[in-house]
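Hi V.,

You were right to ask for the full record rather than a summary. Here it is.
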Amino acid sequence: MADIEIEIDGKTLKATTDTMVIQVADEAGIYIPRFCYHKHLSVAANCRMCLVEVEKSGKPLPACATPCMPGMKVFTKSPKALAAQKAVMEFLLINHPLDCPICDQGGECELQDLTMGFGGPKSFFNEGKRSVKDKDIGPLIETEMTRCIQCTRCVRFGAEVAGMRELGATSRGEDMEIGTYVEHAMKSEVSGNVIDICPVGALTSKPFRFSARAWELEQRPTVSQHDCLGSNLYAHVRNGKVMRLVPRENMTINETWISDRDRFSYEGLYHTDRTTKPLIKKNGTWQEVTWQTAIEFTVSRVQQIIKIHGAEEIGALASPSSSLEEFYLLQKLMRGLGSSNVDHRLRQTDFSDDGSLPAYPSLGMTLAELAQKEAIFLIGSNIQKEQPSAGLRVRKAFLKGAKIMALNCYDYDFHFDLSEKQIVSPDEIVAALAGILKALSLNATVMMDDAVTAAIADVSVNEQHAAIAKQLQASQNAVVILGNMAMNHPEAALIRTLAAAIAKAAGAQYGLLTEGANAAGAWFAGAIPHRGVANASVLKPGLNAQSMLTKRLQAYFLLNVEPDLDCANPVVATEALATAEFVVSLSLFRNSVIDQHADVILPIAAFVEKSGTLVNSADEWQTFRGIALPHEESRPAWKVLRVLGNIFELDGFDYASSEEIHHELKLMAAKLAPIRAVSHPMTASQLKAPSTQSLYRIGAIPIYSGDSLVRRAKALQAAQPILEGIVASVRIHPATAAKLQLQEGEMVTVKQKQGQIRLPVRLDDKSSERGVYIAGGIIETSGLSELYGALELQK
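Predicted structure:
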């Protein structure tokens, strides 16, 4: 729309006729008080606190709901405007309790602040104040609903942003209450944002309750390390200890929202499992030692193993959420010792297309661009649980009319409608993708390589394949996205090849959303066995994560890895460590498998206690600094690796700070020669639908079991069953249960290659009849050997 001119408090400003007065005022730095208005929510105009005087208007108008008009003159501080604002404040305070001294919102309360500016010194209300019964809405959010001023921000957030209208208003006038109507816990993975947008103390953080006052806290910026997007955060710190995490606005990544996982994971920082001092195992007993003793012992043992068995018998496994600097020094240490056995892809099992992959995994676009897509095809992705910020952008696209399609092994409850979906067993996903590609090829305008055409020649196409292909082709701005399940699938290489071919045939973009916070950084830093730093070639490629464990090396370095919970095959991982001569764990937490099989434990700092860099899936490099004191004797992992390199007398470990490492990597990035992805070969036999009728495990990772920190966050663990149901169970289709004569709640034995466990049965029609949902990443299922693979069920 064309620009117009308006005047606010005598200042001439540019605006458009679809812009509200409050928006123009905010951009110009002219403050107008408000309670219900929020820039990312719809306009409600029900608090009336933003009343302003508009020339030629007989009464004050709400600035949030008054569109700009040519020549409009607005007065925000005139006697008429101030009188209206003070009158509104008097009404709001009629029923508000005077409990500021015990309210967690005290010191950062919008009502408190505006009362100082617009409240009167005396109340004329002599009647009794109303009181409202508090609601129990789960382990994350505390309610004090007598304080509620019915701004409805929380209601609108759930309906418009989160996609789950869990809160609403009942009754009218003075009797109006905000709640769930039928009492239940909130199930949204971003529910904690209502804490931030609540202008009073009605909704506060339950884990933070009564632990600190706002004026005692220092606000310091940091970056989330629980998914591949890196939401921006503020850590509120007291005496060097993190007391809570809140969102930091970044419009290109998380806007003003963060997931509950990012918000409440800080509880795990000070868990009793936290490693505090260097430990060495002597005669089967852990003994506390000095850092110098632990480092020298580690170097001595590794040198012995290299001398006897060779450097190729040493391997390093790293968490995909490690920092760029940690990845760089870890691979530098390993290659300096003579081994390229280094990897971060702990849950991946198919590495056959390593040589044909691009420089690093990437979404290939910004999140803002994702929200503008007309068609989005999700493959093996539970995007709103795996990458909640991306899930919110997909919902934005849906609200603008985008067609969202999904091919999954489990029928997830997305917060947006799917125009098309296909739910298949994990061993049928390749055939389903081939069917979609074949449907695309039937369009005369689609050109494909001869090899691809030959491979899909005999593939059958069903109605779902044709419908997905049609919607992709009809869009001028589409994207195909692979999620965690697709990346960890036993045929991940074929899935990537087919997905890329589908994107190419449909004229769509193609992107990956990876596990962990820094998979892209790991590839760039060379924490992969087949490429060096910045995609440099290596003379002798090393072993990938899976091969390192199946071949049972003599020594392992573990960087923030819990083998029984973070690896694709916990049984094989545990056995590999048990047979190794030497295992050194740079670890945040004590773990039963590490305690049993490691020889040295070196305590490392958590993400808020160290500095470093993350590279997210949108190709953004985000640096962060240590904003809390290291826990007891823990040290940043990059410093531990630097000292190890120096004691081993390796070149290139003379860094005084992580910034020096970052600068060195940035110089390499400037010279990065991009690797052009090439097509991975596929054959007709690989694309056939499976002939077997065996059951197949779906080993997805529950939302709060993805890494060691969230697994120890008390409130998140209490919330996980609310969002996911009972995760330690065998979820099977009712038709399959009937064939096997299994009943709800009955204990069943699950057998899978080397592993065997017993779990209760849960009837669930969200998977295919051959798909059995048994979650990974939890202790109860760590006795199974594959996240995705054939299994047997026995009574």
